[in-house]
Design goal:
The chain has helices at about 1-20, 55-65, 85-100, 105-110, 165-170; strands at about 40, 80, 85, 100, 115, 125-130, 140-145, 145-150, 160, 170-175. It is α+β, with helices and mostly antiparallel strands and about 180 residues long. A hairpin with a 2-residue loop joins strand 7 and strand 8. The longest helix has 20 residues, at about 1-20. Mean pLDDT is about 85; it is low at about 1-35.
């Protein structure tokens, strides 16, 4: 009987050790909210950090947007881990690139920077669309060559589309330049 218990204990030991290995790691202590350099203001440009040129700032916005391709869509999502919606994508990219608190809704985002005509679009500009019957209900980041990256609900992932597609061409509302020219 004691021999049977020893045999069972010896057989169970590796299983107990494996279960211990499968335990989830303890979460790291929260670092707290990010340290913001500034807050985006209505009608104001985003000022790149000291030492960053406008071209580098534009590259930060476009490259960070493209790195999120394939991220699942989630209504109200504001991080790649939980999923992103269109305005969450833009807010996440700008906040990560510049440590600037950025508005979360398309309506608020449509008040930043300066409006520009479609023919003057440049990489890093924001493009807004009326997709729900109200102006500026959808937003994306312009990449150049008539392409933009956005988080659409259809097909459910962050992707690149063309402004020349009928759907987007018919729904284009405005474009806004976010990044200020450096002196």
């Amino acid at each position: 009987m004691i021999a049977d218990r020893l045999l069972i204990a010896a057989a169970a030991l590796p299983l107990v050790l494996l279960i211990g290995c499968a335990s989830p790691p303890k979460p790291a202590p929260s670092a707290g909210p990010p340290a913001w350099r500034a807050e985006a203001q209505i009608g104001a440009f985003i000022q790149p950090p000291a030492g960053m040129s406008r071209d580098q700032a534009v590259s930060e916005i476009t490259s960070r947007s493209v790195l999120l391709l394939g991220t699942p869509y989630r209504l109200g999502g504001s991080s790649p881990a939980e999923g992103l919606d269109c305005s969450g994508l833009v807010a996440h990219v700008v906040q990560e690139a510049f440590r600037v608190r950025f508005p979360r809704t398309t309506e608020e985002q449509a008040t930043l920077g300066a409006p520009i005509p479609m023919h003057a679009l440049a990489p890093g500009d924001l493009v807004f669309f009326n997709t729900t019957g109200r102006p500026n209900s959808h937003v994306g980041v312009y990449l150049g060559e008539r392409r933009f990256v956005h988080a659409p609900t259809s097909r459910g992932v962050v992707r690149i589309e063309s402004l020349t597609q009928d759907y987007w061409a018919k729904r284009f509302d405005q474009a806004r330049r976010l990044i200020a020219q450096k002196d």
